[in-house]
Design goal:
432 residues; alpha+beta; Beta-Lactamase; Heat Shock Protein 90; 3 domains; 5-stranded antiparallel sheet; 15 helices; binds adenosine-5'-diphosphate; binds magnesium ion
Length: 432
């Protein structure tokens, strides 16, 4: 090696980068310790091969040695060149990345250095992945917090509602119980009263027909008969007693319906007659439809009973039927169809309630099951009906769907499994 390289050699000796001095043909004239470590050729063997005139690309074959040797480019361009991130595969198959720098020295020599940045890059890449993961985790966390907040808000609304419903249920049940006794006095005694009145009338008539009454008594009797309009009284008392009987019967029916409606406590899954539930509900809300809306029934004969929370199922019909009646301004028709069916291989009952009401615009339809969403005025709607309906139906493992056409009408379809799955039976109390 020409003496001019002595100071260069001294500089390179302690360098952390691998370094070589090459001649024009890329024979190695000098290599430093770092190069020896990089080459993974044992010291003695390396010294031997270099002494025998080994070329750099024979000792340390990198991809670029053949296609774009950095040293050759520097030599030809007569200036130093540096290439970052040269990828190379070593004989043992390991992927490496180098920073390679080369500088020509005169026309005959090249100095080349190699820095192995494989580990550094790996760390950088790993860091990038970790950072990305952390960013994603943050995004996920934010989404989860949002979701939980929404769930909490809904749960809170549900609790308020549940409380209201159970208070209402207890109130209704209490009222029904309290009304039951007085109604029974009236209803149970009206027939006796009718009988007594008839007996008294018989007595009066018999006395009246007696020919040999003293004239004073006869005159008195006639005067009284005239004053109290006896003939009218006889006729009217029968009518009165009949209407008392009818009225009492009606109150008894309402009490029965109220009891029916609030029969079950939360979580009680019992055999439930859907048709009876619908009919009871129609009776209870009759002021909303009687004389104004025709009710068409299409009940498949011989329908089985549902195992469900009867009180809650009644609320479902109450809410849908109330909405249907409210949606019809003036006169119209509500059609109720109940049939058996199958959903996902499970036997179900399908209840479809159609109205000829005003229909639901698409932007409203998206929100009808949201809690507190209502398009109605104060006193007409709370916006909780369809939300609780949807919750109840879902808690029973069923579905609630709605089709609607503006100006034509809407159909709400409820599909309920005949029996709840094990889970729903257990979780029902918690869900509603
Ligand atoms: N059958 C229907 N026809 C038209 N609109 C309906 C019908 N059922 C529900 N809606 C709409 O859905 C909204 C929410 O219904 P609901 O949850 O029962 O609350 P509310 O009846 O108290 O307003 C109603 O305000 C109404 O706009
Ligand atoms: Mg409603």
């Amino acid at each position: 090696m020409p003496p001019i390289f002595e100071p260069v050699r001294e500089l390179l000796e302690g360098s952390l980068d691998g370094a070589v001095i090459l001649d024009r043909d890329r024979r190695i004239l000098y290599y430093n310790q770092a190069y020896e470590a990089l080459s993974r050729v044992r010291g003695r063997e390396l010294a031997h091969r270099v002494a025998a005139g080994a070329r750099c690309y024979e000792i340390f074959p990198l991809d670029v040695c053949e296609s774009a040797c950095v040293g050759c480019r520097a030599r030809d361009a007569k200036r130093a060149i540096r290439v970052d991130e040269i990828r190379a595969k070593r004989r043992d198959g390991e992927d490496l990345t180098f920073i390679v720098a080369a500088a020509p020295v005169g026309d005959d020599y090249i100095v080349e250095t190699y820095r192995d940045v494989t580990a550094e890059l790996r760390i950088q890449r790993r860091l990038k992945v970790l950072l990305e993961r952390e960013r994603q985790a943050k995004v996920d966390l934010e989404a989860r917090v949002e979701e939980r907040t929404r769930e909490l808000r809904q749960a809170q609304a549900q609790l308020v509602l549940q409380d209201k419903m159970s208070t209402l249920g207890r109130l209704v049940a209490g009222m029904a119980h309290e009304l039951n006794n007085p109604v029974n006095f009236v209803y149970g005694n009206v027939d006796f009263l009718a009988q007594y009145v008839d007996d008294l009338l018989t007595l009066v008539r018999t006395a009246d027909q007696f020919a040999a009454l003293p004239p004073a008594l006869r005159a008195e009797l006639d005067a009284i008969k005239q004053r109290i309009e006896f003939d009218y009284l006889v006729e009217d008392s029968h009518k009165l007693l009949n209407s008392i009987r009818n009225g009492a019967e009606r109150i008894a029916a309402i009490v029965r319906d109220l009891k029916n409606f609030s029969r079950t406590g939360a979580g009680d899954m019992v055999e439930t007659d859907v048709i009876a539930g619908i009919e009871t509900t129609l009776n209870l809300i009759s002021p909303l439809h009687r004389g104004r809306i025709a009710i068409e029934r299409d009940y498949e004969p011989g329908l089985p009973k549902l195992v469900a929370n009867a009180g809650h199922i009644n609320q479902v019909f109450m809410n849908i039927l109330t909405n249907a009646a409210q949606a019809i301004r003036g006169t119209g028709t509500i059609r109720i169809a109940v049939a058996r069916g199958e959903a996902d291989g499970i036997p179900v009952l399908r209840v479809a309630i159609s109205d000829t009401g005003e229909g639901i615009p698409p932007e409203v339809r998206e929100r009808i099951t949201d809690p507190f969403f209502t398009t109605k005025g104060v006193g007409e709607g709370t916006g909780l009906g369809l939300w609780i309906t949807d919750s109840i139906v879902r808690a029973h493992g069923g579905t609630l769907t709605c089709e609607s056409q503006l100006g034509v009408g809407s159909t709400f379809s409820v599909t309920l499994p005949l029996r709840p799955s094990g889970d729903q039976a257990g979780e029902y109390g918690a869900a509603v």
